[in-house]
Each structure stands twice: as structure tokens, then as C-alpha cells.
Design brief:
With 118 residues, this protein is an all-alpha fold. The protein has a domain at 66-100. Helices cover 35% and strands 0% of the residues. It has helices at residues 13-30, 69-79, 89-100. The longest helix is centred in the N-terminal third of the chain and has 18 residues, at 13-30.
Length: 118
């Protein structure tokens, strides 16, 4: 008997936002939870925090950002280890990053002195 192959769900930024992020937001709101403050905290006397470091250092300007979609997934999983809501999003974000990732290719028709905007 032949096996039925269902089409894979194509991930797009708008579908990810609409189906995944808005769905998560609705579930959190229904449960009375939020990951970000939705307004000022009336119990907080102040939001001022005295900085220990008052001068910028060289490393403050260096981002240790993931350089590939796989590194992005690993970094998100490490960041969201304790979050049962966000951790499952890491793989879908990796798939989205793979889809959107583009390696620049030198085009001989465009001068190296022209900034390519697309």
C-alpha cells in the first residue's frame, strides 16, 4: 500500500508571526501571564539603576552573535532552557533563519564600490 505524503507546512515570517507568536501571546494572555511588562509597576519606587560600569569597553561593541541558523537554534535553546513556552520556538526560528539566510555573491556586473541594496 502506498504511503500518503502530506505536504510540509511552509514556514514564512508572516505565518510564523500570525500562527505561532500571536497564538502564544493569546494563550499567555488567557492565563494572565506575560514575558514583558505591559505597564509601569505601581509598587516600584523608581526605575533608576546606578551603573557599576560608567565607561564603554571594546568588548561592549562586539556582538557574539550566532553565525549560522544552527548556532541560532543552539543559542536560543540555551537562553530559553527554563521556558516551556519559548524553547519549542527555537527549531521553527532556525528553519525560518535557514529560509531567509542569503550568502552574498560577487556580481561581476556590479562595481565593488556600489552598495547592493537587495
Amino acid at each position: 500500500m502506498a504511503r500518503i505524503r502530506w505536504p510540509r507546512r511552509r514556514i514564512t515570517p508572516d505565518r510564523f508571526f500570525r500562527d505561532t507568536l500571536l497564538g502564544l501571546s493569546a494563550r499567555l494572555a488567557a492565563a494572565g501571564r506575560s514575558y514583558f511588562a505591559t505597564g509601569p509597576d505601581p509598587a516600584a519606587p523608581s526605575y533608576w539603576e546606578a551603573r557599576e560600569q560608567t565607561r564603554m569597553q571594546r568588548q561592549d561593541f562586539e556582538a557574539n552573535a550566532p553565525r549560522s541558523p544552527a548556532q541560532l537554534e543552539a543559542a536560543l535553546l540555551e537562553l530559553w532552557t527554563d521556558s516551556e513556552d519559548l524553547a519549542p520556538l527555537a527549531h521553527e526560528l532556525q528553519l525560518l533563519a535557514e529560509k531567509l539566510h542569503r550568502v552574498d555573491v560577487d556580481d561581476p556586473d556590479v562595481s565593488a564600490f556600489v552598495y547592493v541594496m537587495y
